[in-house]
């Protein structure tokens, strides 16, 4: 099996791999899976500020992998973003898994509240989360490590966990019996 993942960002790739190892569907063939990892355009803004835009970004990335001519059994697009719910902002990760029959499913990570100061920088000043967290934490590349969720949860919950759970939610509908009824 070949799985194409539209990113070179380590916690995203590791999240997908961890998710695969923990599914009842693909874990037994994990060692036979060949992974293609490639940075691909999401065709949305660099810092998505709504759940719909973040979903579009994940879906576009999976579609763009396929359009590029990459041959795989599954194409996986991944996007991190924030959105407003009932007046507060939350961060989450979204995974879109697409197969060669054109069947695609979204999966979502749990969400965490965005701290107030960071919300202002994002939604009022228009900055990117990676840059804001870089300035606040002194760590240049937080999104390549445990991510904002890790930073805001004292690593109870990391960026890898975010995408591992989102992947599991996206892959289940391809195999789970209730979706075949
Ligand atoms: O290389 P790609 O796959 O694009 O991975 P990325 O880390 O840039 O992540 P996204 O494009 O999915 O996320 C969109 C933006 O949101 C920010 N972001 C998302 N999650 C983050 C996190 O956990 N920590 C820091 N910044 C994050 C970051 O500034 C990104 O430019």
TrEMBL record:
Signal peptide: none
Name of protein: inosine/xanthosine triphosphatase
Lineage per the UniProt record: Bacteria, Candidatus Absconditibacteriota, Vampirococcus
Organism listed in the record: Candidatus Vampirococcus lugosii
Cofactor: Mn(2+); Mg(2+)
Domain Non-canonical purine NTP phosphatase/PRRC1 stretches: 7-175
Keywords of this entry: Hydrolase, Magnesium, Manganese, Metal-binding, Nucleotide metabolism, Nucleotide-binding
UniProt cross-references to Gene3D superfamilies, sorted A to Z: 3.90.950.10
EC number: 3.6.1.73
Origin: domain of life: Bacteria
TM helices/strands, residue ranges: none
Keyword Magnesium: yes
Reaction(s) catalysed by this chain's protein: ITP + H2O = IDP + phosphate + H(+); XTP + H2O = XDP + phosphate + H(+)
Family annotation (InterPro entries): ITPase-like_fam, NTPase/PRRC1, YjjX_NTPase
């Amino acid at each position: 099996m070949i799985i194409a993942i539209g990113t070179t960002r380590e916690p995203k790739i590791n999240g997908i791999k961890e998710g695969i190892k923990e599914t009842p569907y693909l874990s037994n063939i994990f060692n036979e899976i060949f992974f293609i990892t490639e940075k691909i355009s999401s065709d949305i803004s660099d810092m998505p500020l709504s759940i719909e835009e973040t979903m579009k970004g994940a879906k576009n990335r999976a579609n763009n992998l396929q359009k590029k001519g990459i041959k795989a059994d599954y194409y996986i697009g991944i996007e991190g973003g924030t959105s407003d719910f009932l007046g507060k902002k939350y961060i989450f990760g979204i995974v879109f898994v697409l197969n060669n029959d054109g069947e695609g499913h979204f999966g979502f990570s749990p969400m965490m509240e965005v701290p107030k100061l960071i919300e202002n920088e994002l939604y009022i000043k228009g900055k990117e989360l990676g840059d804001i967290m870089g300035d606040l934490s002194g760590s240049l590349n937080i999104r390549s490590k445990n991510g904002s969720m890790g930073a805001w949860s004292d690593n109870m919950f990391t960026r890898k966990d975010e995408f591992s759970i989102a992947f599991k939610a996206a892959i289940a509908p391809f195999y789970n019996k209730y979706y075949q009824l």
